[in-house]
Amino acid sequence: MPRQKEELILENHNRDGVDRRGFLKCMAWAGTGALCVVKGGILRSYSLSDPSALAAGASNGELAFVQISDSHMGFNKPANPDVVATLQAAVDKINAAPVEPAFLLHTGDISHLSKPAEFDTVDQVLRSAKAKQVFFVPGEHDVLEDNGQQYLDRYGKSAKGSGWYSFDQKGVHFIALVNVLNLKAGGLGSLGPEQLDWLQDDVKGLAASTPIVVFAHIPLWTVYPEWGWGTDDSAQALAYLRRFGSVTVLNGHIHQTMRKVEGNITFHTAMSTAFPQPQPGTAPSPGPMKVPADQLRSLLGVTSVDYVPGRHTLAVVDSSLD
Amino acid sequence: MKKVILGAVAASLLVLSFGISRDSHAKPAASEPANSSDKYQIKIDNFSFAPATLTVPAGATVTWVNQDDIPHTVISTDGKEIKSPVLDTDEHFAHAFARPGIYAYYCSVHPKMTGKIVVQERTPSRPR
Q: Chain B contact for A286, CB < 8 A?
């Protein structure tokens, strides 16, 4: 029964009680945003909606950062007529957290239609964040028309290729990947051979004990291929990372939180700050989900990550804008 | 009826006059009813093209209209015949197909979305 085996988390390296049942419980969080704290090579996440747990758990990390995603600036349909307000609410929430993140990661779909004014608005809102540094990767909505040239001009001046790069913070190696360009008909997200070669080279000299955080827009695990929620050549990328003791993969694109553990690799998707999308297969298409106005903010949010040396994985927590 | 036939003849003459009916792989044209307005529409809805396959006579203009809340594109799979700009909600894109052939296309933003236009050679309609 190989199929069944795939669906189970057979090894729980983290001893955090996240078995399949726990995983499903995590999925039910869809609607909370998060702070990620890296502790001992381990990413742990804390809900921004639960300040006491956040203060207790996140304060002893040595690196904390926040992931935001899918701000879709310019979107104005009924699913959320005011995406500026919800992005601002996300920034306010991050600013109010007891632990100040070292930086923010934006995992793409910054804009809705790649318009300069949309990028400008996001930049302006993000300037109100206490954390001054923001690292970006593009979503497919950021590279419309011009094959990503405008995105590169704005955010990728020191990046390689179509916008990939890596950097180190407090002993954690961060890798930004681009999987939204040169998409083939009928296919999923794509990294491409040039980027894969770069990745192999980028991690070559690193000790296996180095905690790795990979972030990209489209999930690097196959969430739901029928809706294009996966990346065709992600297996090759993950093959280069399997030797590392702690790998955390952060993605956006699907506008809801999902989590999967595969050996030493933890996959995590973040909520959007703009509009929710349906759970896989529960709607005719992955289009924006219209929910009652008073419920919208419970389905939007941010993700926090905490790193504490000595622990196996980083803590990743989602919390909603409520 | 006479007017329709004349229209079809004129269209086929137009095709011939540009010398572009040379696709030898094109199937002999089926004698389908001529459409005087050449209006063929494909709806983009729920992340799919409907109909996914559309058969039209050479010279027909096909119009795509995006009814999703998300932008889409219409791009030839081989990068040649069709290249729409990004279509936001309710935006249209029209393309005239002069030459018979099978034109596969997809949405370059959501590549799972694929479709096909089958353009048939247009022959003068004859009375049955």
A: yes
